[in-house]
Amino acid sequence: MKKPNLKQQYRVNEQIRVREVRIVGDDIDSCVVPTSQALQMAESRGVDLVEISPNAEPPVCRLIDYSKFIYQQKKHQKEIKAKQVKVDVKEIRFGPQTDDHDYNFKLKHAQGFLSDGDKVKAYVFFKGRSILFKEQGEVLLLRFAADLEEYGKVEQMPQLEGKRMIMFLAPKKQTGARKPQEMAEEAVEVPVREKKAPQQKARKEYTGPKVEGEDFDD
Q1: Looking at the 3D structure of the chain, how many domains does it have?
Q2: Are β-strands 48-53 and 60-64 bridged in parallel, bridged antiparallel, or unpaired?
Q3: Of 31, 43, 124, 213, which has fewest CB within 10 angstroms of its CB?
């Protein structure tokens, strides 16, 4: 179902058909007045009467330019959306007797998932009588967590749920990363130091008194 746009969510001016409203704003003291009076106040200020809380008793309105109000609401929604971080959960499945080649292959994938900011749901699936090896499955998951210690932290220790032993890993926050500008400055400074070093060394080869007419560079 399509959500109504912002202009459909708020009543404005003559659309507000209640007996009285509460007026609020940055430059006005909160007060309850008849709706007709609120409309006159808005008109005298050259703005609109916008209902921002219709379920309050009485409904709450602001004296503000309607276009400016809608713009502020859209901006606020964008800011909220930008702060929301979507975290995907990637699944990695093992058998109770996974060989080293398969283990390393899945370990590499988990490192990539965690580096990208995704969570990892690692589990050992026990088929038939392999449930007898549940301790072996737990050891495998704990080893998996230890090998991923640099990339993620255990959010849920291995737990047996039916035929699965499940463990959750969450990505670690990246810290200490150098800024591109710092790396660029370092790249420029290094050749300069390397170029000066031989000249400094040449000056230290002879420390005795200089004799006029003799050349000690040869």
Answers
A1: 2
A2: antiparallel
A3: 213
